[in-house]
Amino acid sequence: MRALIQRVAHASVSVEGELISRIERGLVVLLGIKNGDDHSVAEFMAQKMVNLRIFEDQDGKLNLSALDVGAEILAVSQFTLYADTRRGRRPGFSTAAPPEISLPLYQQFVALVKQSGLKVKTGQFGAHMKVEIINDGPVTIMLDSEDH
Description:
alpha/beta, D-tyrosyl-trna(Tyr) Deacylase, Chain: A, 3 helices, 23% helix
């Protein structure tokens, strides 16, 4: 599982011109799920993300987590995080899990983040979305479950 995390001033998701989710200060989490990921991976990634210290303290140091600042979370499923670009010009996506595997894991990730007490919004799984992100910092962090 991969999570591209962006600290944002605000962010939103629209589908077919209709706003479906919006958050203020918080994190946008673009979540990619690969074949072989399971519930333990979703739990690890959710805990890592909510505890990642990427918000500034009173001294301007990145010492505070989403939990510490009460950040809002916008979780968006994004299979393209598993694009294979090693050959040719067209990315391959065979490493990305199919919807019947990735949807339940995405939903579990969202549920686990909600259990932390943070306000969580989502994109629309499988839809063509317009994601508006106002990156704050900019701060962008890649988490990969294979790195733990």
